[in-house]
Specification:
The chain is mainly alpha-helical. The chain has 8 helices and no strands. This is Murein hydrolase effector protein LrgB.
Length: 125
């Protein structure tokens, strides 16, 4: 078996991409914690920055990658629903900070829209 055939086999198995993706996320968590939980260094952002060059270098189309890690995508739904329990347990605290939460969401939404429009304008779209 030559090296090219071995690499083709390794990159075609879903388990490989699940392990690499989870490892990239773990590295993201470590970096996030080492930097004092800096807001711009969220683990998901770090994982993306790690995964993008790996996929480009390995010549893996995003569709193939997504199909390989589809089990992770499947479990995101139940994980999101599971967040309801801690939210419910902290309902009194959420009510206490309801106005700041709404202001933050409103300002964040406006900023997101303005950022998107600004980027599109800068790119001439």
């Amino acid at each position: 078996m030559n090296v090219d055939a071995l690499m083709a086999y390794i990159t075609s198995t879903p388990l490989t991409w699940i392990i690499i993706t989870m490892s990239a996320y773990k590295v993201g968590i470590l970096i996030y914690e080492k930097t004092g939980k800096h807001a711009l260094l969220q683990p998901i952002v770090i994982a993306y920055v790690i995964m993008l060059p790996i996929l480009i270098i390995a010549h893996i189309p995003y569709k193939q990658y997504f199909e390989s890690v589809s089990i992770l995508h499947f479990f995101l739904g139940p994980a999101t629903v599971a967040l309801a329990l801690p939210l419910y347990k902290n309902l009194k605290l959420i009510h206490a900070y309801l106005l700041p939460i709404f202001i933050t969401l409103f300002v964040g939404g406006i900023f997101t829209i303005l950022s998107a429009v600004g980027i599109l304008w800068l790119l001439g779209a």
